[in-house]
Amino acid sequence: MDKFTFTIEAEEGKARVGQITTPHGKIDTPVFMPVGTLGSVKTVSPAELAELKVQIILANNYHLYLRPGLEIIRQAKGIHNFMSWEKPILTDSGGFQVFSLGKGNKGDHNLVKIKDDGVEFRSHLDGTKHLFTPEGVIKMQETIGADIIMCFDECAPHDSTFEYAQRAMERTHGWAKQALSFHEKQGRLSEYGHYQALFGIIQGVIFDKLRLESAKYISSLPFDGIAIGGLSVGEEKIDMHRTLDLIEPSLPREKPRYLMGVGSPEDLLEGVERGIDMFDCVLATRIARNGTVWTKLGRLNLNNAKYSSDFKPIELECDCSACQQFSRAYISHLIREKEILGIRLTTLHNLRFLMKLMEQVRVAIREKRFKKFKEEFLHNFEK
Amino acid sequence: MDKFTFTIEAEEGKARVGQITTPHGKIDTPVFMPVGTLGSVKTVSPAELAELKVQIILANNYHLYLRPGLEIIRQAKGIHNFMSWEKPILTDSGGFQVFSLGKGNKGDHNLVKIKDDGVEFRSHLDGTKHLFTPEGVIKMQETIGADIIMCFDECAPHDSTFEYAQRAMERTHGWAKQALSFHEKQGRLSEYGHYQALFGIIQGVIFDKLRLESAKYISSLPFDGIAIGGLSVGEEKIDMHRTLDLIEPSLPREKPRYLMGVGSPEDLLEGVERGIDMFDCVLATRIARNGTVWTKLGRLNLNNAKYSSDFKPIELECDCSACQQFSRAYISHLIREKEILGIRLTTLHNLRFLMKLMEQVRVAIREKRFKKFKEEFLHNFEK
Fold it and tell me: Which of A37, A40, A144 to mutate to test the interface with B (most CBs of B within 10 A)?
């Protein structure tokens, strides 16, 4: 199992169930990938992730490059060893972070400079100058050693002009080609000798012409998978849905498709319906740290006074350890008192909620009742 | 097992190995009790506490009375159910907190008013006025439902005058008698019908005359156990040791002795040598949250740059999950980045360190080599 493969096992409309194999194990798709930016899914241990049936997690090249730095990860013999997680990992290239965070401490957008060979930016931590190039970013990710790595891309703001969006897309296309040829030269291998799948990223903001052009271009290159970037960054839902509908026919059926940064329960179902196989998002863990949890009947904010004497579990049918052992009243008390166990429990619940949702999605597609499942879920969740 | 018993199983000098039985299980002594002030040992889940072989934890009447409030705990049918911890629990009366925190938001010591029937203070959370009486504090703890409860006491500052220390001690003695007679009237039972052991507290600052008087008085009353309060509150070590040596002959051999608020590795050994059976302290968990961990060879501060590329576990021989799975480099990275997993791991390690230390102490006393064990431990730990 040292190659990257993707097999489609069932389909319903555009929705698909499949399996990805990587050097660190298999992944059933559609899959939600929890985010561990700095090499830790916030508040959760690797053993707990495995208990939640998490199949793959994300880490971020921009953040790991700055801290702890690549030399530390090299000495640890890669990110899997460093963080003690033996299952698959995907690293984002950091393109998104360079443009959103790389303005140094002064926050001046002009401090992010696009040069011929790459992008110069300032660390959001200490203002030091750094240069990311399409090849350099691949090399960094080869040192980090994830199973799936991403091209360096420019995620233009959702309110960009057509002209800017076009320039950013063209840059992203050029970088994609450079990244691919660089990684190809290394035999698509990490520093530790295992195969690293490389995904290209489609951009184009919400301009149909650009999105279609980008989808076709990225699909034409020999990537292991296709990512869709620049969505769920502030645009209207309707624009995201239209864009996904628009580009789907241009995506190769046989490659996994990854919708970057998307992860509310509703958006996961909308994405699956439109043929997406992989998702990641900080939402589940971020709202958990504010005391908000998902249930089949919608969101609960455990800071709300009524939960302080509610002795039911967050969700009666849930098999997560928060629901198996603790009441809303107790967790609500912990959240109010800023006890860390509180946000551990809400995080575990929200992650398990998404894992279970995706398990149900996979079964529903196999049984050709995904459309009905989606309708019922949303009916209960949004009422 | 619905009564409270204490059996001494082995002795070496004044040091003793024993076993306490409570309605929620047995406790091997000498024992260190982790502190879960608000019904949660900071960062740790009950399942993890059990894994660490924690036998009993502490909670605090002052804090639980203010938040979540006794009515919530009553509805949960007691603190064990509320926090999902089935083993023994001890609640401190909150005497210490009333005097140290009960000054409201303005911090004016005069806002703590000693009245005929008890002490009026202001909540450190919202400045509201509250009255704690010796009987009321027992009633509150009967609602919380711990296995061991404490008398309301006044812990005078370590630099008190003799006159003030004497008045505080005399008040504490009067309150002790009232507490005992009130709890006796309830059959020494919690609201939920299980036996609650009541401990009296010796005070007297560092005045030998007062300490001796207090030890004799508290020992003369039919308490289930004897606590020593007002030490480790800023006085010199030598004064703590002298006080313990002074009062030990006055303490009934057959009752467990609890040295309140003491819990550095060195102080645990000094206490055991002087005949103490029970200890609690926030030190282990508090320093963990600053990135400091204990090893046999002393303290490590994982914020120190040298640990960022140190791939050894915190302690090679340690069986805690932090040491079994993670390197100093990884934990140091997490601590630096304020990732919660980092302080979870340092907390687990420090608690396990104390649990293991007390396991070794118990074996050493049984084998009549405690004195040697203590010398060797301190030699390595302090060098």
Answer: A40
Residue B37 lies in a domain: yes
Tell me which residue in A82, A337, A340 faces B67 most closely, judged by beta carbons: A337
A203 and A302: one domain?
no
Q: What gap in Å lies between CA A353 and CA A235, rounded to an integer?
A: 26
Which of B147, B267, B277, B280 is flagged as catalytic? Answer: B280
- Mutation pick from B73, B341, B347 vs chain A, by most beta carbons of A within 10 Å, is B341
In a domain, B358, yes or no: yes
How distant is the Cα of B82 from the closest Cα of chain A, in angstroms? 6
Whether B72 and A333 lie within 8 Å, measured CB to CB: yes
Is residue B245 domain-resident? no
Residues A199 and A218 in one domain: yes
Choose the closest CB to A340 out of B42, B72, B333: B42
pLDDT of the residue at A283: 98
The structure's pTM equals 0.97
Percentage of chain A beyond pLDDT 90 is 93
> Is B324 buried (19+), middle (13-18) or exposed (0-12) by CB count in 10 A?
exposed
Which residues of chain A fall short of a pLDDT of 50?
1
Shared domain for B53 and B118, answered yes or no, is yes
SS3 A105: coil
> Cβ–Cβ of B76/A327 closer than 8 Å?
yes
pLDDT tens digits, residue range B176-209? Answer: 999 999 999 999 999 999 999 999 999 999 999 9
ipTM of the complex: 0.97
Domain assignment of residue B64, given as a range:
33-236
Residues A230 and A311 reside in one and the same domain: no
Quickly list H helices, A7-161. 46-51, 61-66, 70-75, 79-83, 95-101, 134-144
- What is the distance between the alpha carbons of residues B41 and B56, in angstroms, rounded to a whole number? 11
